[in-house]
Amino acid sequence: MADEVIAQDSSAKFKPHPEGQFVAQCVDVIDLGKRVESYPGKSKRIVPKVAVLFRTGSLGEDGQPIDIGAEFTVSMNEKAGLRAFLESWRGKSYNDETAQAGVPLHKLVGNYALISVEHKKAASGRTYGKIKSTTPVPFGLAKTDVQGGYLRADYWEERKKNYLAETAQFMQENVAPSHEGEAIPKDDDLPF
């Protein structure tokens, strides 16, 4: 006689952050390591990535805070998404000297922003919350400390591992060892 077995989808049920505007506190800045990225018409390249996480006080069905984050390439180039995000958040542009000197992202933790969250659909069909914009918190709007009890989700360590694995694979496929044991680009990557 066969065992009675019932197969179910046991994947975690993910509830996205609600849509709207929220006063949010930055609770974490995560160095995600390097990732392979490609853009239409450009060669694949390895770029450093960072995630900036916020907490708004919104709670999930389990009563736990729902954090929301944005991921960026670590760059303060004038066209970089991170620079635009930070300039919008602080309410003014960086001058070239400050951008070249570098911005200490870890100092964002504890600071507040007014964020606008919208829902998007992933290719998998899952709905997720995305930070559409950030601005400084208007004068007089209440700021509540919501970072207490923050613990980084395991998701971020998994993301780091995935990025590391895809970068290692890319390097293995696109870099050949030289005679001295140093890595040199394969011939098809040379500009001539």
Provide structural commentary.
Helices cover 19% and strands 35% of the residues. It has helices at residues 81-90, 96-101, 154-174; strands at residues 20-37, 45-59, 65-73, 112-121, 127-135, 175-177, 183-185. The strands form 2 sheets. The protein has a 5-stranded antiparallel β-sheet with strand order 3-2-1-4-5. A two-stranded antiparallel ribbon has the order 6-7. The chain starts with 19 loop residues before the first strand and ends in a 7-residue tail after the last strand.
Radius of gyration: 21 Å
The largest sheet is: 5 strands, antiparallel
Parts with pLDDT < 50 across at least 5 consecutive residues: none
How would you write the strand order of the largest sheet? 3-2-1-4-5
Please write out the topology:
Layout: E1 20-37, E2 45-59, E3 65-73, H1 81-90, H2 96-101, E4 112-121, E5 127-135, H3 154-174, E6 175-177, E7 183-185
Antiparallel strand pairs: 1-2, 1-4, 2-3, 4-5, 6-7
Gist of the model:
The chain is α+β, with helices and mostly antiparallel strands.
Keywords:
two-stranded antiparallel ribbon, alpha+beta, 192 residues
